[in-house]
Amino acid sequence: MNTATKAIVEQAAKLSVNEKIELIDALLATVDKPDAEIDSLWALEAESRLSAYQKGEFQALDLNQVLAKYR
Prior knowledge:
Number of helices: 4
Helix content: over 70%
Strand content: under 5%
Order of helices and strands: HHHH
Oligomer: single chain
Largest sheet: none
Radius of gyration: 20 Å
Shape: elongated
Structural class: mainly alpha
Number of strands: 0
């Protein structure tokens, strides 16, 4: 981490929690650029999964069941 970055981090550490979240969100927006092709592929995948669920091809688990698996 260079000197300028360290100075920014020190200043950011003084911000309120909400201000830090806003800063993080703004920084992420500069590196996480939308990709229409990826978005389209994910939409197709989501539709496919929903359709399979609605047809009874697989069952969903509730959150507690999923969490229990990893405890």
